[in-house]
Design brief:
Layout: E1 4-8, H1 16-28, E2 33-38, E3 45-46, H2 53-57, H3 60-73, E4 77-80, H4 89-100, E5 105-109, E6 123-124, E7 129-130, H5 142-146, H6 153-169, H7 172-175, E8 178-181, H8 184-192, E9 200-202, E10 222-226, H9 235-245, E11 251-255, H10 260-269, E12 275-279, H11 283-292, E13 295-297, H12 308-315, E14 319-323, H13 326-336, E15 341-342, H14 347-359, H15 361-365, H16 368-379, H17 381-393
Parallel strand pairs: 1-2, 1-4, 2-3, 4-5, 5-8, 8-9, 10-11, 10-13, 11-12, 13-14, 14-15
Antiparallel strand pairs: 6-7
């Protein structure tokens, strides 16, 4: 009998988590019958992203769609990724299905902090600071008082209610048989929530294309930021650092879309004609911007889990600079040690780090072939595929 796997995610195409979701499917379908469920047409079962606050808390249509399909397919494994826009209804469908088929194994790959934080980000947008008040709390209620969501009280309460349904009523963390995490950071949070280490497997997000050799001959004096334009990304710190260094032969490209008010604020503080706001760039065109750049800066105030953009930068010969917290720093340390890690939210530290690599990029570039070997070891698709298959086989 063929082993069947159902994989569930919000989207097929969107960002880094979706690229990883698709890669999981590509690996698993080499050995198993894989069936996908998400809100995009590429998936076998098309579910619905919420349109109303009630659907965010519980989407009745998604519950019945998924539950009926599970009864038809009778999968041996159900593998969640991000499902929060589909609502906790999909978790309930899996819980009820498993009551009928008790040998079914439930896996989840964690891409964000929903399991510990109703706001999913470990960040209080109301106070513009990292927040861990809900970590280790059995019932997570701080969002109701703190108004952590960027949009204010109403959305904070909606997220709080959804979290109570998902984490408390449906007992999310004890429903999952095995968690897969892409970083030691995420693993440490799970353990702090009382989840035993044997229920956690570390599997770092893969990078598909790792060039054997990288040429830096045609690089230009360009620093790039790629990501959402929003306050927690701390882009103003990068702009201030770039303007303080004030080297006329360097440019700063800011790529992304998001919070319009924050975008206008960044435009107002940008006095240099060498700062370019390029807006949204489709993924298929991103390679061109990376290939001409020398340095990527991700100055986030919040905790990143395992940003794929760092790996994409390395494979394009771009030096990533990251703050000394979260999964970004963890990735850089694995690949090349502490080079390029600056003090959290420190303008002086960022200026010093940027200036060093602006002046010494060629020296760093001479180490790229060794760096690629480390990336292949920790993030290569072959190792990822082997470890993912081992994880599944351990649950037979």
């Amino acid at each position: 009998m063929n082993i069947k796997v159902v994989t569930i995610n919000n989207y097929w195409r969107f960002g880094g988590a979706e690229r990883v979701f698709v890669e999981y499917i590509n690996v698993l379908k080499r050995k198993y019958d894989v069936y996908s469920a998400c809100s995009d047409k590429e998936c076998h079962l098309k579910l619905e992203i919420y349109k109303t606050p009630f659907q965010y808390i519980f989407n009745v249509g998604n519950f019945w769609k998924l539950y009926r399909r599970l009864l038809i397919l009778k999968p041996n494994f159900i593998h969640f990724h991000n499902y929060y826009y589909l609502s906790p209804s999909v978790l309930l469908a899996v819980i009820i299905y498993k009551r009928k088929f008790i040998n079914t194994k439930i896996i989840q790959t964690l891409h964000d902090f929903h399991l510990f934080c109703p706001n999913a980000s470990m960040f209080n947008f109301n106070k513009n600071e990292i927040c861990n008040k809900c970590v280790r709390k059995r019932v997570k209620l701080s969002i109701f008082k703190e108004r952590c969501d960027r949009r204010g009280l109403f959305y904070s309460w909606i997220k709080g209610v959804r979290s109570l349904v998902d984490l408390t009523l449906l007992d999310h963390k004890n429903t999952i048989d095995l968690f897969i995490v892409p970083s030691e950071l995420m693993k440490s949070f799970l353990i702090s929530e009382g989840i035993k280490a044997e229920r956690i497997k570390l599997l770092r997000n893969p990078i598909m294309k790792i060039p054997r050799r990288i040429s830096i001959v045609n690089k230009k004096n360009i620093i790039v930021y790629i990501g959402r334009i929003s306050p927690e990304k701390n882009i103003e710190l990068l702009i201030k650092a770039f303007q303080s260094i004030n080297l006329k032969n360097w440019k700063l490209n800011i790529i992304g879309k998001g919070d319009q008010a924050y975008f206008e604020y960044l435009r107002r503080i940008s006095k240099s004609e060498n700062i370019n706001f390029l807006g949204y760039v489709p993924p298929e065109d991103m390679d061109r911007y990376l290939e001409e750049s020398k340095i990527l800066v991700l100055p986030s105030k919040w905790l990143e889990n395992a940003p794929v953009s760092i790996l994409e930068a390395y494979t394009a010969g771009v030096k990533p600079l990251v703050p000394d917290i979260g999964g970004g720093a963890e990735t850089v340390k694995l690949v090349e040690g502490t080079d390029g890690i600056f003090g959290y939210n420190s303008l002086d530290s960022l200026i010093q780090t940027m200036r060093y690599f602006m002046e010494n990029y060629s020296k760093w570039g001479a180490k790229l072939n060794d760096i690629m070997q480390n990336i292949k070891e920790y993030f290569g698709i072959n190792n990822f595929s082997r470890k993912l298959r081992q994880i599944y086989e351990s649950l037979y």
